[in-house]
Write a structure and sequence with these properties.
single chain, 68 residues, mainly alpha, 0% strand
Amino acid sequence: MLLKAILVCLLIFIVFNLFRALPIMLKGKSDIPMSRYLGRRVFFSVIAFVLLLIAIATGVIEPNARPY
């Protein structure tokens, strides 16, 4: 249950950083570069993916054997 909460928080933070980069992309000029927020988004996406792989490998999360 804790792992699922961490993954949900990571996904919310990923979407939050995406929307933080949106005004910078629309305006064009800002003190903070857009790559800062997009880089954070990619970094936390990689962390979420690695956590999913570790959880599947250790058996904490079981994938569907047959999704259809």
